[in-house]
Design a protein that fits this description.
alpha/beta, three-stranded parallel sheet
Length: about 260
């Protein structure tokens, strides 16, 4: 079976989805179900998973027994803040080790601060966390994060929440070709064709939130993304035909024709 392997565990779905920006937890769960995702991200600073006892908890709608939680550090701008946030997540989720690290550079673009990201990654890995890391599409930084011990590298396709799709496929291909850990596109996917292209490039998976939650019909978009990821993966495995500029080739055989 063709599975996504993260931190020693195999997953059938290569689509990871966020849990924010939906109108309520009921819609969140419906979209997750439609996506087929097995890993769901949780912004610890923005989503209640037990830290606010008097408010509805995501845990009641998306049980950790059914899904793998991926606590993330959305909204963190320093390594220290990110590490503190994930230590809290580990406490709230009974020693949970798999996390998504992101350290942002500024609130306008939400572009990653790779210096702070590297620093936080080193600390978290020393403390026993399994770190999936959001980063720029710089192949050198991606390799450094892998060598630090991150279990997956997650370069952006374009800015978080932009929906601009894959703006630099060449850098993504370099990262993919040189990585020995899974590479997942994180940020920038806007619609199903973006997801398919990312998978056709050879990405191991995709993480998205706004592309689904921000759609007019989030549940239907989640279903579309599921199919796009599966189709893109199959196309990559199949191996596309070679491109031939100005070299037409008939799809039907030219030999053995009836005279």
């Amino acid at each position: 079976m063709d599975t996504l392997n993260i931190a020693g565990r195999a997953y059938a779905s290569r689509l990871l989805v966020g849990t924010g920006k939906y109108k309520d937890f009921e819609q969140t769960r419906a979209a997750i179900d439609a996506s087929g995702a097995e890993i769901v991200t949780v912004a610890i600073r923005r989503t209640n998973i037990g830290q606010n006892a008097d408010e509805p908890s995501l845990l009641d709608f998306v049980p950790p027994e059914q899904f793998t939680y991926l606590p993330n550090t959305a909204g963190c701008y320093t390594a220290e803040d990110a590490v503190r946030t994930l230590r809290l997540a580990r406490e709230l989720l009974d020693g949970h080790k798999l996390v998504k690290l992101e350290v942002l550079g500024d609130p306008h673009t939400l572009y990653p601060n790779v210096v702070e990201t590297l620093s936080a990654a080193k600390t978290l890995i020393k403390e026993g966390f399994d770190v999936m890391v959001y980063t720029s599409d710089d192949p050198i930084i991606a390799k450094q994060l892998e060598e630090t011990g991150c279990c997956a590298v997650m370069p952006l396709a374009s800015l978080i929440g932009s929906g601009m799709g894959i703006l630099n496929p060449w850098n993504l291909q370099i990262i993919i070709e040189n990585a020995k850990v899974p590479v997942l596109v994180d940020a920038g996917v806007g619609t199903a064709s973006d997801a398919a292209i990312a998978m056709e490039l050879g990405c191991d998976g995709i993480l998205m939130n706004t592309a689904i939650a921000g759609a007019k019909n989030p549940v239907l978009m989640a279903s579309a993304m599921k199919k796009a990821v599966e189709a893109g993966r199959e196309a990559w495995l199949a191996g596309r035909m070679a491109k031939k500029l100005y070299s037409a080739a008939p799809s039907s055989p030219t030999t053995g024709l009836i005279a």
